[in-house]
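quick one before i forget lol
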Amino acid sequence: MSLTEKNLNFTLDFPKEKVITSTLKVVEKMKGFKVKSENKLAGIITVSTGVSATSWGENVIIKCEDDNGKTRVSVSSESKTGIMAGGAMTPKNTQNVNLILENITNDLQGLEFKLKSGSNKSVLITLILLMLLGVFGLHKFYLGKTMWGVIYLFTFGLFGIGVFVDFIRLIMGNLQDSNGNEVTNW
């Protein structure tokens, strides 16, 4: 899926009812996602996401249509504010759509799924540590990046440049914790 696509279309080898049930089950268990509306007869589910570091939240519309025992699925994402990159999917929208789809597919196959996207570390705490004590690397220690924390401690945040870069990366939503997950949850 490219970032300019408004819709993602694909077919699953499962009946429509099973895909709808799986979608509802998955969304109810995922952190930061909730079912805003559902119409099982029409096969339309609207999922709402919360605010993150890179988004004011979004509505993900999932449409399921029967296709001879298979299910044709169409997924679109739109900003709750109505203002979003000229109608294109942003990286956060794409990440959310991919996470929902991955979890639906995993659930249908009987596999475990991820409950949320991104790191379990808080953007707010990271931002406070970065702004107040970033030159000493406390935000790096908080994110579990001990080696980088020590480097920042002895170089005063890579002479301030590293702190500035981390601030930009945090605001853009691509600062990662020690597990490689992006810090995007407030």
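fyi Residues 7-108 form a domain with the Alpha-D-Glucose-1,6-Bisphosphate; Chain A, domain 4 fold (CATH 3.30.530.20).
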